[in-house]
Amino acid sequence: MKNKKTFDIVLTAFFLGIMILMSVVPFLGFIPIGPLNATILHVPVIIGSVILGPRLGAFLGTSFGVMSVINATTRPSALSFVFSPFIPIIGTSHGSWKALLVALVPRILVGIVPYYVYKFGQRFFKGKTNSIALFLAGIAGGLTNTLLVMNLIYFLFKDSYGQIIKKGADQVYGAILAVIATQGVPEAIVAGILTAAVASILLRLRKQNALGN
Pick from 33, 167, 168, 184: most CB atoms within 10 A? Predict the structure, then answer.
């Protein structure tokens, strides 16, 4: 048990270090695509959720959210106000605390949802390759991030978002769906592939450490 706890602490620190590196290196963790940033920072959170469980997964997800706030504040773009309360909303001189909901809530859930999807997949695909459950967990984590972020932007900042993308109120959700389809779905597929590849190795290492007690 001691070896397992040590392994989990080391792995948590490892994931956190990777996330910090990705967040501070321009165009690595946050990749500007139009008014929004694409990201792969959710991938370490998803893998951490599957390997370490929802508690440490939520910690990594919270860290992801904090890094998103810092990135939006220190490297502002047209839509940074939806992720940072320190960036003024378009047309105003002040930010909104609601930005913290967009930045934090989806990312915390990215650290929780994949674990339960993986456990469900293990039961559903019992006797089959573990890679299917891991792939589905990665897909679920990626979609959790994109679907919640984009829908929170719509419900909390619809008018301001519409001004940025130059769409009327009745066209904003169509634009949201377009982002989900063109950016969120590919991100989720990449997350699924990487989770299946990396998590399978780490799960074996974790099991070996546990058996080594």
Answer: 184
Query: How many angstroms separate the CA atoms of 41 and 21, rounded?
Result: 10
- H or E stretch at 63: helix 54-74
Residues in the chain: 213
Q: What is the pLDDT of residues 114-125, one digit of tens each?
A: 999 999 998 887
Torsion sign (Cα): 112, 114, 120, 126: negative
Integer Cα distance of 132 and 196 in angstroms = 7
What's this model's pTM, rounded to 2 decimal places? 0.91
pLDDT, tens digit, for every residue of 79-113?
A: 999 999 999 998 888 999 999 999 999 999 999 99
115 touches 123 (CB < 8 A) = no
